[in-house]
Write a structure and sequence with these properties.
By secondary structure, the protein is an alpha/beta fold. Helices cover 43% and strands 13% of the residues.
C-alpha cells in the first residue's frame, strides 16, 4: 500500500492514507525516498521503525525533518551518526528535534566513543533537558569523562554498566572540583550504585557474569562519592556478584548510615564478621528490616557480629538463620538481643532441648517476638511449646 501511494504521487490520496494510519508507519518497510515524500505531506510526526526500514541517505538530509519524525528502535550507531552530524552543524535546534524524535532517549549503548564522539555528546547534553542516556557497555576515554560528568545535570536518568560506573566513581572522587558531579551522578542514577552482574549482562556479546573484584581504591571512590553527594536520600548500594577485601570494607563502613546495602550472603558474612561496635548501628540500618543468612555457616565471630547488629537494630522483622549449623553454644551468643526480632527461623540446625528451652524463656518474656520456627532440630521434648502459638516446631 505504501508503494502504491508513493507511486501514485497524488496529494489527496497521500493525505487520506496518512490520516487513516495516524502517521504510524512502523509496520511498513520504507526507503528514504518514500519517507521523504510522506514527510512533505504531514505537519504532525510520522512514526518509523528503523529496524524494518532501509533509510539510506546523508544524515544531513534527515536533520531538517527530525521534529516531524518519531523513530522506533533506533540503533546506537545511527544515533551516534546523527549526534555527530548535529555537532558538525553546530545547530542547537537540531538537538531538540532529535530528542523529540526519540522521546528524549539517547541510546549509545555498546559504542566505543572517541574524542570526537565525546565532543558531540557534550554538545548534545548542553542543549537538552530531562533526557535519558544509555551508556551501557560503552567505552569512553578516561580523560573525556571529567568534562562529560558535569553535563549530567541535563539528564533525568542514566544507564551504565558496572565497569563504566566504576570509572565515573573514580573520576568524581579524585578532586574537589568534582564534588558537585558526585551529587549529580547519584541523582541521575536514581541513587542506585549497581555493581552486580546484572548491570553487566550484554546479550549482544559475551556475558560478563564473573564476580567483580573491587579493590580498596574502588571502595574508597564509592565512599567518597556517597559522602560528597550530601544527599538526604539513602543510596542503594548493590554489591551482588562482588568480592571485596577487608581493607575495602573498612572504607565502606563510614558511609553505611547513608546506604541501603544489597549483597550476596558471602559478602554479607564478611560485613557481619568485621563489624565493630561503633559501626553496628550503621550496618544494621543499611541491611533494612529483613536479614537472610540461611544456608551459611555461622562461626563464633559472625555470631558475635550478628549480636551487635541485633543490639542496634530497630524494626527488624525477619531473621532467617535456617540451616546455619547452629548449636546450643553458638545460640548462646545470639540470645541477649534475640528479642529485637519479630520473626525468627531456626529451622534445620543442631539445637537441642537445652537450647530450645533458653529460646522459649526469651520468647515468654518478650511480646515483640511473633514467630519462632524450630523445625528439623534435635529437640525431643516438644510439649513445652504446645501452649504458645508463636512456636512452629512440628
Amino acid at each position: 500500500m505504501v508503494e502504491c501511494v508513493y507511486e501514485a504521487q497524488e496529494d489527496e490520496l497521500t493525505e487520506c492514507f496518512l490520516q487513516k494510519m495516524g502517521g504510524d508507519l512502523t509496520s511498513c518497510s520504507l526507503n528514504w525516498e518514500e519517507l521523504h515524500y510522506f514527510l512533505q505531506h504531514r505537519i504532525q510526526q510520522i512514526t518509523v521503525n528503523l529496524r524494518k526500514s532501509n533509510i539510506q541517505s546523508r544524515i544531513s538530509e534527515i536533520l531538517p525533518f527530525l521534529n516531524r519524525i518519531k523513530f522506533k528502535r533506533m540503533s546506537s550507531s545511527f544515533m551516534m551518526s546523527i549526534i555527530r552530524e548535529i555537532y558538525e552543524s553546530r545547530s542547537a535546534g537540531f538537538v531538540s528535534g532529535l530528542l523529540s524524535s526519540v522521546e528524549n532517549y539517547i541510546n549509545l549503548q555498546s559504542r566505543d566513543l572517541d574524542s570526537v564522539d565525546c565532543a558531540a555528546l557534550r554538545f548534545t547534553l548542553q542543549h537538552c533537558t530531562a533526557a535519558s542516556l544509555n551508556l551501557q557497555w560503552t567505552s569512553t576515554p578516561e580523560e573525556e569523562l571529567e568534562s562529560i560528568l558535569p553535563l549530567f545535570t541535563h539528564l533525568s536518568h542514566l544507564s551504565v554498566d558496572r565497569r563504566l560506573l566504576l570509572k565515573m566513581l573514580h573520576c568524581c572522587s579524585v578532586s574537589g572540583v568534582q564534588q558537585e558531579a558526585a551529587s549529580v551522578l547519584l541523582s541521575v542514577l536514581q541513587h542506585k550504585l549497581d555493581l552486580s552482574c546484572r548491570s553487566a549482562l550484554d546479550l549482544t556479546t559475551n556475558t560478563d557474569s564473573e564476580p567483580l573484584h573491587l579493590t580498596t581504591d574502588d571502595c574508597r571512590a564509592m565512599s567518597r562519592v556517597i559522602q560528597r553527594a550530601h544527599s538526604d536520600t539513602k543510596t542503594q548500594l548493590i554489591l551482588q556478584d562482588c568480592e571485596i577485601p577487608t581493607a575495602g570494607m573498612n572504607e565502606l563502613f563510614p558511609v553505611l548510615h547513608s546506604v541501603r546495602l544489597c549483597c550476596d550472603k558471602s559478602l554479607l558474612l564478611q560485613f557481619v564478621a568485621h563489624v565493630r561496635p561503633e559501626e553496628a548501628q550503621s550496618l544494621s540500618g543499611a541491611l533494612g528490616e529483613e536479614l537472610d543468612l540461611s544456608q551459611t555457616q555461622l562461626d563464633p565471630q559472625v555470631c558475635r557480629g550478628l549480636d551487635l547488629i541485633l543490639e542496634y537494630s530497630e524494626g527488624l522483622t525477619e531473621l532467617d538463620l535456617s540451616q546455619c549449623r547452629l548449636t546450643d553454644h553458638s545460640l548462646d551468643l545470639l540470645l541477649p538481643n534475640l528479642h529485637k526480632v519479630q520473626n525468627i527461623d531456626f529451622s534445620g540446625n543442631s539445637i537441642t532441648d537445652a537450647g530450645a528451652w533458653r529460646i522459649h524463656y526469651i520468647v515468654s518474656l518478650n511480646s515483640n517476638i511473633k514467630t519462632v520456627r524450630l523445625f528439623m532440630n534435635r529437640i525431643e521434648h516438644k510439649e513445652l511449646f504446645s501452649t504458645d502459638p508463636r512456636f512452629e516446631i512440628w
